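Sequence, please.
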């Protein structure tokens, strides 16, 4: 996709701090980290969101999920981490290229979202 930020990152047209790359998947640090560890895992294939995955993506999504704990540990998350996938407008998705946030650090993260 020509104008997608994350496709541009995958094509190295926009710089990023990469922590993992293979033929299908890329992981790089979020530009606005919300915790000491905050990276994004993306498929190199442009899939807009989790709402757009199909059966043909099963192996790819499985590979991404298997990588999440490995990379989290490598980044120093020894005692857990949080994985977030914002999906669509209601989910607060801002970049419409599927990505898993992996967030962690030393301190316990704040609790889940509650309507006030
Ligand atoms: P979303 O709200 O779509 O789940 O999250 C998008 C994330 O992408 C945000 O946390 C934002 O900081 C990150 N982001 C947006 N543009 C860039 C960029 O150009 N480089 C990097 N590394 N992260 C980005
Ligand atoms: Zn894309």
């Amino acid at each position: 996709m020509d104008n997608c930020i994350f496709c541009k990152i995958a094509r190295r047209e926009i710089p990023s701090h990469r922590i993992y790359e293979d033929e299908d998947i890329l992981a790089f640090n979020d530009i606005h980290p919300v915790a000491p560890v905050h990276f994004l895992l993306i498929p190199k294939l442009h899939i807009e969101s989790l709402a757009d995955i199909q059966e043909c993506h099963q192996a790819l999504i499985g590979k991404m999920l298997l990588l999440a704990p490995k990379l989290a540990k490598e980044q120093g998350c020894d005692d857990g981490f949080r994985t977030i996938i914002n999906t669509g407008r209601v989910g607060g998705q801002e970049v419409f290229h599927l990505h898993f946030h992996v967030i962690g650090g030393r301190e316990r993260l704040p609790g889940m979202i509650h309507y006030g």
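The pocket of zinc ion (ligand 2) is lined by residues 1, 4, 6-7, 46, 97 (CB under 6 Å).
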